[in-house]
Amino acid sequence: MTRRIGTILQVDVARAIRAAKRNGADAIQVAPNGTITILLKAPPIAPKDEDAFQKWERENESAKAARHRDRV
Length: 72
Description:
The protein is mainly alpha-helical and 72 residues long. The protein has helices at residues 10-22, 52-71, and strands at 27-30, 36-39.
């Protein structure tokens, strides 16, 4: 099986990232078909559902870190 030519090159992605940063964009998307989309505002990332233990652990870890900062 031979290698096929890529639909998008690394230099194209680098050029899009530089242009996006220069113009204040939050993110870019690169589709498998080679389409580069520059997003002026990044889409929100929905948090995954937490179970009761994960919620308890998150709350207690932050309290533990706060106690540690008080001692130092």
